[in-house]
Predict the structure.
Amino acid sequence: MSIGNTKDQGNKGNNFPWQIRMLNGLQCVCDQLKELNVDTAAIEATLLDIEVILQTVETNTTGVQRTPNFLRPTGVSGTVVAGTFSMSFASVGTANATVGGMVLKPGETINFDAGALNNTLGAVAYSTTATGAELIIITLT
């Protein structure tokens, strides 16, 4: 988890708001446990562990580099293989294309995101066999 990963355009793919809420929640747990005034070594050790985790997460801003891949199929059927972190399909032709069994009309775009660090997507089939069908496909591996 990286705090302040603002390299993304807008708020796309940026989970900073969720991350800060989680960190604030952990801090609240630490504060509440300290107020119990129970003198046990186990609670103190747990609080110290949580504080170390919070400090580590707050200073970890190292991102993971991903590789974008681009396809522009027309007149073919194919599959984007499993294991990508995200994929986008834009219908840029004059006829309908098919993505994952769903019709994608000209001008429509759909995006898939695996959702969390190191999650990946399954395979997605596409078809541009209709005359005039064309897709732009972008995947992130």
Observations:
- The domain at 68-140 is CATH 2.60.120.10 (Jelly Rolls).
- Helices lie at 16-34, 41-59.
